[in-house]
Design goal:
78 residues, alpha+beta, 4 helices
């Protein structure tokens, strides 16, 4: 592999280290990319950003969103 290309990829990994693509998140959650797209349109899914045609999710934002999806149990103090 070209050394410059390898360095560029390593830099991109660091820059986007806290972010994941729509495909990566879909795989992680076991759902389809289309489902994430529908959730974005309906504003019910995890927060995301768009960079051109690409969509990225901040890992911390996804974790917060997942916590918000937990049902609140009566009498649990939540």
């Amino acid at each position: 592999m070209d050394e410059n290309l390898e360095q560029a990829e390593e830099h991109a990994d660091r820059l986007l280290g806290d972010w994941m693509s729509r495909g990566e998140l879909a795989t992680e959650l076991g759902i389809s990319v289309d489902t994430l797209g529908r959730w974005e349109t309906r504003r019910i899914g995890p927060p995301c950003i768009r960079l051109g045609r690409r969509v990225y999710y901040r890992k911390g934002g996804v974790r917060e969103w997942l916590r918000e999806q937990e049902p609140k149990r009566p009498g649990s103090g939540q």
